Amino acid sequence: MPPNIVEVVVHARWRLNIFNRASFTGSRTMQRWQQLPEIPGLAMEGLALTGASVDIERGLVSLIVLEMGGSSNLCALLKPGEPVVLMGPTGTPTEIPAGKTVVLVGGGLGNAVLFSIGAAARAAGSKVLYFAGYKKLVDRYKVAEIEAAADIVVWCSDESPGFEATRPQDKSYVGNIVKAMVAYASGELGVQPVALADADHIIAIGSDRMMAAVGLARHNQLKPYLKADHFAIGSINSPMQCMMKEICAQCLQPHQDPETGKITYVFSCFNQDQPLDQVDFPGLATRLRQNTAQEKLTSQWIRHCVNDVG
Ligand code: FES
């Protein structure tokens, strides 16, 4: 896995029996069962996580964690067989379009979720065009799963020389993901086995800045290449706490109606998939950075404690 990303695989057979295959993208909370015995005081608070995939036959849930400072950093210290408390999924599962043309736009960690959505969409008879974007070449993971989830993958990286596509139909691009979409749609990358102009649904999952850029580009540089009535959503990973719907309000997300300008608020823990044209991205960016100082301090404290014990 790339640096700062941890995959936690939880064995939870009895829970999976009641999962719907399409429900893997609902949010979950995970918590350590007990404190680290060797480092008293490093208990883990509940973490709101998005499930990456499930293996129903083997009873496994895969959860991808980005180390942000705090409990997320402690996930790397979990030991095989150690019990955790896993609650969920909660919230509305991602809608899987059937018999449509679906464009997936993934940035970094977002690709850990998108490949499951792509696989489900293909199983439902949709065509999938997948733009998978990364900052560095070392950031890419689950390549086989992403390939299996898409008819075409456009591998994008900010870092040169870019990825080498292994399947003949796939493409590679060095630069940001919006430029990659323009290059693909304009024919700069060659033939389009699945045309961007056929897209019915666009699903973007990545950083708030990436999703905001994709949302905006649809009305500017990508507009000539898209159907006017396509539908675009982003998975809004706003800060969360209780995940119990209208209890703590940590997940509040402002929306702005693009026609009237009217501001409304939604509880993201009900549904993380929100229309790109309505999300107030500056508001989301501010909220995502609200704990920055605390995260930096906690990260240093954990490093200090772990190094002391080691
Ligand atoms: S996270 Fe508490 S109400 Fe949504």
Quick structural gist:
The chain has 310 residues and is of the alpha/beta class.
Main traits of this protein?
310 residues; Rossmann fold; seven-stranded mixed sheet; five-stranded antiparallel sheet; 8 helices; globular; binds FE2/S2 (inorganic) cluster
CATH topology annotation of the largest domain: Rossmann fold
Rg estimate, integer Å: 20 Å
In CATH, the architecture of the largest domain is 3-Layer(aba) Sandwich
Q: Name the beta content range.
A: 25-35%
Q: Estimate nothing, just give the exact number of structural domains.
A: 2
Tell me the name of the CATH class of the largest domain.
Alpha Beta
Query: What series of H and E elements makes up the topology?
Result: EHEEEHEEHEHEEHEHEEEEHH
Structural class: alpha/beta
| Tally of DSSP helical segments | 8
**Unreliably modeled segments:** 17-26
Could you give the count of β-strands? 14
Largest sheet, spatial ordering of strands: 9-8-7-6-10-11-14
Molecular structure report:
By secondary structure, the chain is an alpha/beta fold. It has two domains: 5-90, Elongation Factor Tu (Ef-tu), domain 3 (Beta Barrel), CATH 2.40.30; 101-235, Rossmann fold (3-Layer(aba) Sandwich), CATH 3.40.50.80. It has helices at 13-16, 71-74, 111-123, 143-148, 177-186, 208-217, 281-288, 292-309; strands at 5-11, 27-32, 47-55, 60-66, 84-90, 101-107, 127-134, 152-157, 171-174, 201-205, 231-235, 252-256, 263-267, 273-275. A hairpin with a 6-residue loop joins strand 12 and strand 13 (263-267). The model is unreliable at 17-26 (pLDDT under 50). It binds FE2/S2 (inorganic) cluster (FES). The site of FE2/S2 (inorganic) cluster has 14 residues, from loops.
